[in-house]
Design a protein that fits this description.
By secondary structure, the protein is of the alpha+beta class. Helices cover 40% and strands 14% of the residues.
Length: 87
């Protein structure tokens, strides 16, 4: 399942938020007596409000697949040279 969330990314706190989401989703939970483990990969790009939203979503999608190729359970930004990956 993929989900798009448009959230202003202004600083490193947003990277920490993505790390918390990944950490929480990685906690096993029980459904009808069965332990279930879920993974999460996140891709993002920085939208300043001036770019075309479709282009931003395309870049975020590319970053998402980069996260998946990089080992899953991570967040990657399209413009990682500026903001860096977070693990």
């Amino acid at each position: 399942m993929e989900k798009s969330i448009l959230e202003p990314l202004q600083n490193r706190q947003n990277v920490e938020m993505f790390n918390r989401i990944i950490k929480e989703l990685n906690q096993p939970f029980v459904i009808e007596g069965h332990t279930v483990n879920v993974g999460c990969s996140i891709g993002g790009d920085i939208w300043t409000g001036e770019q075309d939203i479709h282009e931003i979503l395309k870049k975020a999608d590319e970053a998402l697949y980069s996260s998946k190729r990089g080992g899953k359970n991570r967040a990657t930004f399209y413009n990682a040279h500026e903001y860096g990956d977070c693990l």
